[in-house]
Amino acid sequence: LDMLASGLGVYMLCRLLNLGNWSALLAAIAVTHGTIWLIGQSNLTVHGSLVWVAWTMAAVQYWLNAPSLFRAALMAVPATFLVYAGYPHFAHGLAVYFASMVIGWLMRSEGRAYLSANWRVLLVGSAMAVVLAVCLSAVQLFPLLELVENSHRSEGVGLAFGGMLSAKHLFAGMLFFSWF
């Protein structure tokens, strides 16, 4: 069911991007049978979160096609389910993706024209969607905020081998190499 729901989300995203039926179907099949999706099936939390990644991207595209407050409110629903799915890395990844998308838009004249024509409704709609998603997922988020101080990671995370190995050793040779 997760693969079917993910595939449907990818299909809807592709249709919102004005791809044809067969292209959207191929994309949905390719994504749901891709390595990450197949490996993620062994972890129900990860796979359940992947469903809502596709639907959140589709909801954002639906909103961007014709920005309105109603569509912004709809955008908060799959984002809330993404939080409920319980794997915050994907929500963070989506936030980074959307921020990168805006930066990419600002580099193109069509994107700058779109943003300048719709900046007010985009700003208000995105703020409303974030606030609504946080409010809808408060029952999941507030207990986590109380538990953070009790986490074994509240003081940070140690590096490999109990912190005895510094980051210098992990990154040595990563950007520079020896010709010999």
The number of helical segments is: 9
Q: Specify the helix fraction band.
A: over 70%
Overall outline: globular
- The structure class reads mainly alpha
The overall strand count is: 0
Distance between the termini: 53 Å
Uncertain runs are none
Mean pLDDT: 83
What is the percentage of strand-forming residues? under 5%
The Cα radius of gyration reads 20 Å
Order of helices and strands, N to C? Answer: HHHHHHHHH
In this structure, how is the largest beta sheet organized?
Answer: none
Task: Sum up the structure in keywords.
single chain, 180 residues, mainly alpha
Descriptive account of the structure:
- By secondary structure, this protein is mostly helical.
- It contains nine helices and no strands.
- The chain is globular.
Layout of SSEs?
Elements: H1 2-16, H2 21-32, H3 35-40, H4 44-65, H5 69-85, H6 88-107, H7 109-136, H8 138-147, H9 167-171
Helix pairs in contact: 1-2, 1-4, 4-5, 5-7, 6-7
